[in-house]
Amino acid sequence: RWRFSTTWCSGAWRRWWQAGAGQERQGPRRNPHRIQRLQEQLRPAGDWLQGPYMYYLYSQYGFDKGDIGRLFVAGFGSSMLFGTIVGSLADRQGRKRACITYCITYILSCITKHSPHYRVLLGRILGGVATSLLFSAFESWLVAEHNKRGYDPQWLSI
């Protein structure tokens, strides 16, 4: 299974890299977003891959299905609530600062998962805030920097 996944990932990487080889140069400047596109695909992978393992971890801590469900709802609910305001906060406080805030909140969220105490595990709320930042701050920072540097608008389209 591990061999298949690494083979598939390396093949996907090679196809992705070769697909844009002829499109890398456009005019006098080089398209700076090639690696950024790969990062946009890899950043959420860490968030998605942990989901199935969280249920197992919580069950090993001795929580029943109801408690585990409440923990997941806390994470998704906080993402729903904070998702409505993180974009405007990123605009006001700065997009780079929002990306750094994502890193800090996600690290804190991961740290809380090492505790078997239910109240500490409510750090899933931090995970929801981090998820909201993950899916808004990085792309808005990319677009803002792209426009500020005067790059070709066509480079943003995939």
Automatic annotation (TrEMBL):
GO cellular component assignments: plasma membrane
Location(s) in or outside the cell: Cell membrane
Primary role: Mediates high-affinity intracellular uptake of the rare oligo-element molybdenum.
Q: Which Pfam families match?
A: MFS_5
Q: Please indicate which superkingdom the organism of origin belongs to.
A: Eukaryota
A biological process (GO) of this protein is: monoatomic ion transport
Supply the alphabetized keyword list: Cell membrane, Ion transport, Membrane, Transmembrane, Transmembrane helix, Transport
InterPro entries, per database record? MFS_trans_sf (IPR036259), MOT2/MFSD5 (IPR008509)
Transmembrane segments annotated in the record for this chain: 68-90, 121-144
Name the UniProt record assigns to this protein: Molybdate-anion transporter
PANTHER family the UniProt entry points to: MOLYBDATE-ANION TRANSPORTER, SAM (S-ADENOSYL METHIONINE) TRANSPORTER
Q: What is the protein's membrane topology class?
A: Multi-pass membrane protein
One annotated GO molecular function is:
molybdate ion transmembrane transporter activity
